[in-house]
Backbone:
């Protein structure tokens, strides 16, 4: 037994070494990029996240979602933060994400400490990691060195996976940015923290298939609970934990809920029934260690999508506007 445990730990260690080695040479980003340029950069972001989290825990899943949404459109370039009449920030999926103020606060402090050095794109990536940590999830090394984009167009947010999409469509959108089916299941596992508005849920609870019944893919004993949280008439702004029973803690119980047919969003529950994704759901509900390790790996992989480095883009003085 001890030998097997040693083999497993060694394998994880070697995989991690390989991962960090890849990061150090991947797409112009590297772990510790600011170690001499702005030594307190990561600690400033971390303390800012921790401070805001104490007064508003919703910022943690919000920032994680923000990073995801940013990377899916034009790559991880902080284009989601730019304000204007037709920017990504105005698109429906991005309007109400909690945590924009946290990024702005961290940027203000970093500009005071190291003017013109730390990109908004790196702040989002670091804050996403720190948001997982404050909700009792895994810690990992974040490669930095991204630069900020200068273009942000609301219509491009249509590339984001939606709450009612088939696994086929979700997989296609992930593959468009070179993320695998396993990355899909792993990263959607971020729904272990956070909530959904009832407006995204009520369609599964009432008058499904021209009857007064609920979506048959939902555990029927769970329907009354959801209906109490999301009444048929009104309550569209109420919110439901995406991981029932553990919505504020980063763990693997989200996958256990899928196996019990208690996924909140259609797109989530489909991961349990589709043959291409069910195996990964089973893997993660059986092993929190596996989920945590793969989540960190997929987050790093996603964070390198379409990054701007070197002389590309810019380092914004304000995250909300191009220079």
Residues:
């Amino acid at each position: 037994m001890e030998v097997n445990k040693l083999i497993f730990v060694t394998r994880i260690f070697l995989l991690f070494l390989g991962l960090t080695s890849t990061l150090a040479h991947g797409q112009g980003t590297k772990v510790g990029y600011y170690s001499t340029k702005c030594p307190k950069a990561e600690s400033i972001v971390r303390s800012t996240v921790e401070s805001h989290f104490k007064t508003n825990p919703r910022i943690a899943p919000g920032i994680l979602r923000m990073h995801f949404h940013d990377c899916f459109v034009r790559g991880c370039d902080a284009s989601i933060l730019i304000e204007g009449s037709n920017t990504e920030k105005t698109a429906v999926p991005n309007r109400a994400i909690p945590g924009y103020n946290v990024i702005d606060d961290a940027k203000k402090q970093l500009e005071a400490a190291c003017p013109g050095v730390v990109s908004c794109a790196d702040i989002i990536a670091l804050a996403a990691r720190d948001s997982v940590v404050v909700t009792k999830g895994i810690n990992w090394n974040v490669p930095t060195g991204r630069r900020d984009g200068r273009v942000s167009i609301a219509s491009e947010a249509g590339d984001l996976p939606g709450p009612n999409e088939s696994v086929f469509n979700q997989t296609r959108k992930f593959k468009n940015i070179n993320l695998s089916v396993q990355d899909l299941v792993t990263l959607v596992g971020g729904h272990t923290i956070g909530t959904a508005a009832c407006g995204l849920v009520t369609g599964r609870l009432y008058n499904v298939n021209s009857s007064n019944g609920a979506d048959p893919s939902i555990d029927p004993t769970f329907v009354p609970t959801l209906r109490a949280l999301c009444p048929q008439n009104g309550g569209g702004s109420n919110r439901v934990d995406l991981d029932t029973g553990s919505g504020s803690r980063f763990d693997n119980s989200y996958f256990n809920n899928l196996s019990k047919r208690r996924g909140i969003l259609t797109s989530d529950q489909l991961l349990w029934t589709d043959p291409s994704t069910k195996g990964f759901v089973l893997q993660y509900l059986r092993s929190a260690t596996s989920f945590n390790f793969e989540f960190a790996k997929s987050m790093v992989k996603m964070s390198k999508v379409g990054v701007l480095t070197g002389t590309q883009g810019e380092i914004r003085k304000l995250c909300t506007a191009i220079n």
Observations:
- Residues 167-303 form a domain with the Peroxidase; domain 2 fold (CATH 1.10.420.10).
